Amino acid sequence: FEAAAFAVGRSGQMGLVHVAWRFRPGAVAVGEPGTVVPLPTRVRAVLLDSLGHAVNWRDTTLTVRVRAGDTTVAQVGRLGMTAPSGRYTWRVALSVGDSIGGVPPRWSVVVPRFDAGEVTISDLLIAAPREGAPWIRPDGDTAYVTPRSVWFKGNPLTLYHEIYGPREGESYSSSLSLRRGERTVLSASYTE
Predict the structure, then answer these.
(1) At residue 100, does pLDDT exceed 70?
(2) Mean predicted confidence (pLDDT) in 120-140
(3) Which of 80, 22, 102, 85 has the alpha carbon at shortest distance from 49?
């Protein structure tokens, strides 16, 4: 069970934090091998401020469809919570069916300011086909969210991020570099 949080998107002046999780439910005997079975998945997530007070929280049960006996496919999910700009600690607890669950360590996420008048970039979402939970944006674009951080050579990847602050009609250039140690493994740039 893996989990991560990403600050990408906004709702009005509030930032949107995506809490994503990944687990392999095929380890659970849920039916005859090969059959598709709905598996209830309870997710509880919270964003905590510096004093430990809950800024936002979600407690929900989702139905994940799994192929019984398939231990090769990871199930990925996501839920979104709004928060004002700032640094938060987040926690997530996941329980699948009645037999597996987990609570990863606490981590932090930073929600950027949207009113600062400065150019700000969101967190970067990296996913591979069938490895991300879809986030369908209000404009119809789809980004994929996953906590996975290790990819294999030859995996096609999708990248998504947002840039905040440029005025309408203002052009800007953006460059992205992904490095492994001192070596650049991917770079891209564009002008908007």
Answers:
(1) no
(2) 85
(3) 85
Which pLDDT belongs to residue 28? 52
Between the CA atoms of 44, 128, 149 and 179, what dihedral angle is there, to the nearest 10 degrees?
-150
Looking at residue 33, its pLDDT comes to 67
**What is the reported pTM?**
0.82
Query: Residue 87 corresponds to which tokens in the numbers above?
Result: 């640094």
Exposure string for 148-187, b = 16+ CB within 10 A, e = fewer: beeeeeeeeeeebebebbeeeeeeeeeeeeeeeeeeeeee
Residues with Cβ < 8 Å from 139, sequence gap 6 or more? none
N- to C-terminal Cα separation, the chain: 38
* Residues belonging to the chain: 192
Q: What is the per-residue pLDDT across 25-79, written as a single tens digit (0 to 9) for each?
A: 555 555 666 677 777 888 899 999 999 999 999 999 887 776 666 665 667 888 9
**From the CB of residue 189, how many other CB atoms can be counted at a distance below 10 Å?**
9
DSSP the chain: -EEEEEEEEEETTEEEEEEEEEE-GGGS--SSTT-EEEEEEEEEEEEE-TTS-EEEEEEEEEEEEEETT--SPPEEEEEEEEE-SEEEEEEEEEEETTTEEE-PPPEEEEEPPSSSSS-EE-PPEEE-TTSSEEEE-TTS-EEEE-------TT---EEE--EE-PPTT---EEEEEEEETTEEEEEEEEE-
